[in-house]
Every structure is written in C-alpha cells, then in structure tokens.
Specification:
Elements lengths: L6 E5 L13 E3 L6 E5 L11 E3 L4 E8 L6 E7 L6 E6 L3 E4 L9 E5 L10 E5 L7 E3 L5 E5 L5 E3 L3 E3 L4 E8 L6 E8 L2 H8 L1
C-alpha cells in the first residue's frame, strides 16, 4: 500500500545553466534544481514541471526519501534547431597550383544557446571557373553531416591549375553562409622553366 505524508526530494545536478556548464534543469515550483514533495494518500509524490537549462547533454535526476534507496531518472537535454554557422578551421590557406591544401575546411553549427548541433547537412561549394579547387571526389560541391561536436569537415581539397584567390562558401539551409578565403600560388619552378 502507498504511504502518505513521506517527504520525497527530487534533485538534479547543480549547474549555472550556460552551454559550457553541466546539463541540468530547474523545477518550476522552486526555481532551483531541487524540490521536496510530500506523498499523497496513494503514496505518490509528483514534482512540478522540470525545465531544461541551456546546456545539452545527459544526466540523472534522483528522488530520495529518508530510510529508502534513491531512485534515478535518466534525462537528456537535446540541442535546439541550428541557429548559427561559423568557421572552425582551415581559413586563409594557400598552396601551389595543382597541389592539396594542408588543412581541411571545417565549420561548426550551433543552436541558439551555443550548443553544438549534430546531424546537420552542410554544403561546401567551390568556384566553377578561374582559380579554385576540387574535392577528393572530383566535384566542386560537397555535402557533409555535422558530428557530435557540431563540426562538419570536408575531405582533401586540391588546388586547380589557375593561380589566384578564391572563396569556398559553406552553407546550411536557412542560415547565413560563411566563406573561406583560399589562394592558389603560382608554381615558381614551372615559371622558371617556362622562361628558360
């Protein structure tokens, strides 16, 4: 039979509620990560609505009562919809024409609270004329899905035969695109041989 009048305390991890702090939440009745509720005539203790904080991640909320083993609930705060696209690495590179760039291009997708968003399709687009490059698959466009850290990284990028500066545009549906500035340098050895 249920026992009434027992104090049950619900506790979530302590957290500052920022994207860099631990994932957690607060109970609406207290505005904190804890709430104590007294069991009703049926022995049930029901906490108020639990609101996730701004940090994504998994954690446990425990319910405890004097003299009894605590019970844990597995909870997960998921990232929101993609809100921002930014360059993670690979910007401002140069290489000799017809050779690979040293670093892959990478972007990061985050939600409105700054949490990384996984599973988002990111398109990298190269110029189709003049100075440019090609991806490892021989194409001038490549779509990559963001990983658990919200990062999408392209494969090897090889400069074409035209010297000069160009932009690689990275985009996600409904977000502002970002551009990588790359440069194809002339082949000085080939230039010397041509002039001889």
């Amino acid at each position: 039979n249920g026992v009434s009048g027992v104090s049950v305390t619900f506790t979530a991890p302590a957290s500052a509620g920022t994207p860099t702090s631990p994932a957690s939440g607060t109970f609406t009745a207290t505005g904190t990560n804890t709430q104590t509720v007294v069991t009703d005539a049926s022995g049930n203790a029901t906490a108020s609505t639990f609101v996730a904080n701004a940090a994504a991640g998994s954690y446990n909320v425990t319910a405890s009562a004097p003299g009894l083993a605590p019970v844990s609930y597995s909870v997960e705060n998921t990232s929101g919809a993609p809100s921002s696209l930014g360059i993670s690495s690979g910007n401002n590179q140069n290489t000799v024409i017809n050779t690979p760039f040293s670093s892959p291009l990478a972007v990061i997708v985050t939600d409105g609270a700054g949490n990384p968003v996984s599973g988002t399709q990111v398109t990298f687009a190269l110029p189709t004329t003049g100075a440019g490059a090609i991806f490892a698959n021989g194409a001038t466009t490549l779509t990559v899905v963001t990983d658990a850290s919200g990062v999408a990284t392209n494969t090897t990028l090889k400069a074409n035969g035209a010297p000069g500066q160009f932009a690689v545009v990275s985009s996600v549906n409904n977000l502002s695109s970002v551009s990588f500035a790359l440069t194809n340098d002339r082949d000085s050895v080939a230039d010397v041989q041509t002039t001889q």
